[in-house]
Design goal:
Rossmann fold, 16 helices, 12% strand, alpha/beta, 13-stranded mixed β-sheet, elongated
């Protein structure tokens, strides 16, 4: 049986092929680095080694100078920051493959969407834009149109939408004292506003209150290498969000769309600029509508041209929408278990998604693979799927034991990015501007209702106090904001309308 004879330079070592229960020692199965941005799937039943396969790939990518982003749903990838330890099983596996075990850690940054156990990741409502936010909230056409009108009004009025409170404040204003300002925009029904407010509150309950705001995350911080040229591994801890998948899905939709918008076309690269791994990927699509799936499918299909690779890790290929599964040219299928008729149908369907083999009955042997073994097919440097090979996979070089909570906290505090992201920024935005506007309008109405002086009363007036001019800093804050640059926003919306995103506001540090 022929192995994947890719040149050693520019490829990752996956393991050694197995046939009839024997491992071909010294014959290696490799993954070309240049094909890592063609996306991939790591699948298999619980306990078969999917997460360790992810860890092995991520560690080799980092060593090759490729930055990596890991969505850590179970909280067991933090050990990537320190070297692994040899053991009898690891030594035996490496000897069978013909590769010595070389323990090594990776440069790791820890992030969080809630601020627990990592640097907080945030984005502003303005950077989402109405179309992308509408998909996150799963709005119908009427509601999407209403949300777009609210964003347009906020742009024209110089109102910054930084967090969900700002958006709610604008909605309430436009259904009360500010309703007259919508004459040139169209009608905003109170019933539609009620639906929007309920959707926003639902997202807040999922954790959106912590995610939306400033300082906004800079994607350049995902694309860095350390002093030794190793790609940084950004681990997003999600173990505290397993019951709140909406926030995770919201962030990933924004991040992928932002990367696609801001990165230039890359063409065919010797190695990708960044590779994503989504562990427990079925959470990304749980309870999401068709519009969300279409958005993710569209970005996954197009982002390859920017040098970005996306890998999904889940139990079976059926966990992913068919249109997304069709984009995944690299496959590493761990064992599946057949306990029910439905399980048997899943195994046979999975086998049909892989190239046919002269050496294996894939459907039959899928249930017989051991821990740390997988059927592998990858794209060759020419982009052609290779034959399926049962593979004894190489163990990860980093530790498979998670770090303690205290150790992670110390690493977060000492991170060079801590000063940038830890402290919240609450500058003047739509909420403060509208509150001031309502107060001023109320004062004018009260003055208009004041009765005229009666006959014989003194007609002298107290000397008027000089009118207070607004603080120049507040005006400059609004004038410098991206939402005030309406002409630029409309131009960018036209270019990127297909993705339903808007230009994100860049910070000055």
């Amino acid at each position: 049986m022929a192995a994947y004879d890719f040149a050693e330079a520019g490829s990752l070592i996956l393991g050694a092929p197995r046939l009839a229960g024997e491992t071909a020692t010294g014959v290696l199965i490799r993954q070309p680095l240049s094909m890592m941005n063609r996306h991939g799937l790591i699948a298999g039943a619980t306990g078969t080694g999917k997460t360790r396969t992810l860890q092995m790939l991520a560690g080799q990518l980092s060593a090759a100078g490729v930055p990596v982003f890991l969505a850590d749903m179970k909280g067991d990838l933090s050990g990537m920051a320190v070297p692994g330890s040899a053991s009898l099983k690891i030594d035996e596996r490496c000897a069978a493959i013909g590769q010595p075990f070389q323990p090594a850690g990776c440069p790791v940054e820890f992030f969080s969407l809630t601020g627990n156990g990592g640097l907080p990741l945030r984005a502003t409502v303005s950077s989402f834009g109405p179309l992308l936010l509408a998909r996150v909230l799963d709005l119908n056409e009427t509601q999407r149109s209403a949300l777009a009108m609210v964003f347009k009004f906020s742009d024209d009025q110089g109102l910054l939408l930084l967090d969900l409170v700002d958006l709610k404040e604008v909605l309430l204003y436009l259904t009360d004292t500010g309703a007259s300002h919508l004459r040139e925009y169209g009608n905003l029904a109170k019933a539609t506003v009620g639906v929007l407010l309920r959707k926003i509150v639902e997202l807040e309950q999922q954790g959106g209150e912590q995610f939306f705001g400033e300082p906004e995350f800079d994607i350049d911080d995902l694309l860095s290498v350390d002093e030794a040229g190793r790609g940084r591994v950004s681990i997003l801890g999600l173990s505290d969000l397993q019951e709140r998948p909406a926030l995770f899905s919201t962030f990933m939709m924004w991040l992928l769309a932002t990367l696609f918008r801001e990165l230039p076309e890359a063409g065919d690269l010797a190695k990708p600029k960044l590779v994503f791994f989504f562990d427990e990927a079925h959470h990304l699509f749980d309870g999401k509508g068709k519009a969300f799936e279409e958005q993710i499918e569209q970005v996954v299909r197009l982002i390859r041209s920017k040098g970005i690779g996306v890998w999904f890790v889940t139990q079976t290929p059926r966990d992913l929408p068919a249109d997304i599964l069709a984009q995944l040219g690299n496959r590493m299928q761990h064992a599946l278990r057949a306990f029910t008729p439905d399980d048997d149908r899943t195994i046979r369907a999975t086998a049909r998604t892989m190239p046919k083999s002269e050496h294996y009955d894939v459907a039959d042997q899928l249930t017989k693979l051991g821990i740390g073994e997988a059927f592998v097919t990858v794209l060759s440097p020419e982009g052609v799927p290779t034959a399926v090979a049962a593979t004894l996979l190489l163990p990860p070089a980093s530790s498979m034991t998670p770090l303690s909570v205290e150790d992670v906290a110390r690493r977060v505090q000492s991170s060079p990015l801590a000063e940038r992201y830890v402290t919240d920024i609450d500058r003047q935005s739509a909420r403060e501007a509208l509150q001031a506007r309502v107060a001023e309008e109320s004062a004018l109405e009260a003055a208009a209702r004041k009765p005229a002086p009666t006959a014989g009363a003194s007609t002298s007036r107290p000397r008027a106090e000089p009118r207070q001019r607004p603080e120049p800093g507040a005006a400059q804050t609004i004038l410098k904001s991206p939402v005030a640059r309406a002409a630029t926003q409309e131009l960018v919306r036209g270019i990127f309308g297909l993705l339903g995103v808007r230009t994100s506001r860049r910070r000055a540090w």
